[in-house]
Batch of 2 targets.
Target 1
Amino acid sequence: EPEVTQTPSHQVTQMGQEVILRCVPISNHLYFYWYRQILGQKVEFLVSFYNNEISEKSEIFDDQFSVERPDGSNFTLKIRSTKLEDSAMYFCASGKMVSTEAFFGQGTRLTVV
Amino acid sequence: GESVGLHLPTLSVQEGDNSIINCAYSNSASDYFIWYKQESGKGPQFIIDIRSNMDKRQGQRVTVLLNKTVKHLSLQIAATQPGDSAVYFCAENKRAAGNKLTFGGGTRVLVKP
């Protein structure tokens, strides 16, 4: 069964460093998303991406964040200068169409020290 | 402001019994209301959704009820099984807002053998 894959599963980085979280969405999907979940809290929307552009972003997704689909398979989230409060589980999701059924990856646990 | 929230943080249920998970919302402008399940170490998994103009929808062992008068959403799981142990999130979807999902705080369901 096709699935969304994310790498790495765990990333530890020093405050102020740049990190890139990688995702391979399901191959025939057209809609891509990043969410994050701070430990013990709810899942929060960061950004949605369709047709090679951002379609919606939250207030969390400030100038430190960017997304890119560099080729036909990868979807990346970059945090330019990480802060301690960026520590969270980051989930990539994709969907074939405009739908409530987003398929989530296993997540990347980002720890900023 | 808008919010999607849950009444009970933890629900313990005997295997074979029915489970009911509740959620309150404040934003009436959503297109869909959805339930997601998150098992430990995994990303959220779609269970069922309901369009905002409906009041009931049934799936396999699950039923979602929407009461727009009191802005209340519930998920009923019939004959709860050990594999149903997870955190359940209600969420709302806005197609016009990049198809983003706004998640509630989550309820942990523990199934006792």
Target 2
Amino acid sequence: NAGVTQTPKFQVLKTGQSMTLQCAQDMNHEYMSWYRQDPGMGLRLIHYSVGAGITDQGEVPNGYNVSRSTTEDFPLRLLSAAPSQTSVYFCASSYSSGQGSYTFGSGTRLTVV
Amino acid sequence: AQSVTQPDIHITVSEGASLELRCNYSYGATPYLFWYVQSPGQGLQLLLKYFSGDTLVQGIKGFEAEFKRSQSSFNLRKPSVHWSDAAEYFCAVGALAAGNKLTFGGGTRVLVKP
């Protein structure tokens, strides 16, 4: 089925560990983004990409890295996990002409202990 | 910088009653506005969007929203709610000139009483 696939769905990390959240889309969307969702704060943009090889920072980029080597994949790396990074992470994609009509993945729930 | 405020954190409504969710935005230019819905454990689904033209926008699942520039508002309405409308609703404003970046409000959780 066409859409945005995120893995894993759940993850528990210890403080200081690193990991990569995977995101893949099969709709040939140019734009991809990572958001984190925290209670009462809505979704906040971490990083985004407007095409392969091009990434930029969002509102809350500290502690995260991204790369976009292909149109399909947009992994999010946590360099040294901290309890403040406990959150639900969503990947989203859209056409460049999509005017904000993003397709969202089902999310990754991350707990850092 | 743009911002979105959803004043109501929780709303409880009886099944069959009408629903209105409030959204106020701040943006320096003509806004692109969206409402998304999130069911428990799911990602977000686009309900409707406003770019220009008619200020009353129709969406999926019987929802509509009205853009009022003078009030900087984009409120979401449904005439008669169904139990399946219980979810969290997010208003968002888009910065389309900068990679389609969306700024979300804090969300409103809707509970539906039988």
